[in-house]
């Protein structure tokens, strides 16, 4: 893949997460039922940052979970040659909770559908909301995000790649172009 355009630098990424955090706070005045679940891989780091921002604003520590939806994907037997299953860790009771599911990129909606299936295996949340850093359109399923950092339009031969300082040593979001062999 080849980098085409820097969509967000570290500052823009932080502003987007701060805006999402404020929107979550405005829509959920009762934080006692709220929990955050990050989708593997980079959604986990975004979820933790949102939880930290809420903690610094409200002095309230929210439960944070980690979700891997690999085995719930509808293409894991056909498209994924060797599925790489990662950690799922939801250390709280989800029954009746308001869960904010966090991912880095929303595209077709298929990953979110898989995540909803995986999440409901842990119980019956009262409400599930979706927060994404980037909505790149081109949905295949009727899924929308409740909280969006930025909307962009992409082509079929493009992808969006998020780098987070926790594993990539920098915060940046790039529009990438697929090359032959990708």
Structure description:
There is one protein chain. This protein is α/β, with parallel strands linked by helices. It is built from 4 helices and 8 strands. The strands form 2 sheets. The protein has a 5-stranded parallel β-sheet with strand order 3-2-4-5-6. Helix 3 links the parallel strand 4 (98-106) and strand 5. It starts with a strand and ends in a 5-residue tail after the last strand. The model has no long low-confidence stretch (mean pLDDT 94).
Helix content range: 25-40%
Count of individual beta strands: 8
What's the alpha carbon Rg, rounded to whole Å? Answer: 16 Å
Strand content: 25-35%
Shape: globular
Write down the secondary-structure element order.
EHEHEEHEEEHE
Helix segment count? 4
The spatial strand order of the largest sheet comes to 3-2-4-5-6
Are there runs of 5+ residues with pLDDT below 50, and where?
none
Structural class: alpha/beta
Tell me the distance between the termini.
7 Å
Question: Would you summarize the structure shown here?
Answer:
The protein is an alpha/beta fold and 182 residues long. 27% of the residues lie in helices and 29% in strands.
Characteristics:
five-stranded parallel beta sheet, 8 strands
Secondary structure layout plus pairing:
Elements: E1 2-8, H1 10-27, E2 34-39, H2 42-58, E3 64-67, E4 98-106, H3 110-120, E5 127-135, E6 147-151, E7 158-163, H4 165-168, E8 172-177
Parallel strand pairs: 2-3, 2-4, 4-5, 5-6
Antiparallel strand pairs: 1-8, 7-8
């Amino acid at each position: 893949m080849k980098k085409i355009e820097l969509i967000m630098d570290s500052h823009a990424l932080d502003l987007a997460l701060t805006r999402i955090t404020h929107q979550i706070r405005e829509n959920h005045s009762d934080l006692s039922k709220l929990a955050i679940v990050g989708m593997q891989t980079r959604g986990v780091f975004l979820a933790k940052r949102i939880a930290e921002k809420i903690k610094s604003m409200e002095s309230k520590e929210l439960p944070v979970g980690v979700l891997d939806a690999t085995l719930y994907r509808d293409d894991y037997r056909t498209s994924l040659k060797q599925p790489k299953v990662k950690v799922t860790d939801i250390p709280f009771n989800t029954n009746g909770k308001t869960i904010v599911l966090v991912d880095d990129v929303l595209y077709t909606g298929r990953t979110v559908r898989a995540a909803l299936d995986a999440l409901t295996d842990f119980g019956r949340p009262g409400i599930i909301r979706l927060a994404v850093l980037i909505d790149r359109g081109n949905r295949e399923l009727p899924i929308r995000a409740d909280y969006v950092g930025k909307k962009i339009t992409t082509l079929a031969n493009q992808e969006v790649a998020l780098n987070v300082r926790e594993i990539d040593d920098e915060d940046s979001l790039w529009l990438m172009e697929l090359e032959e062999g990708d």
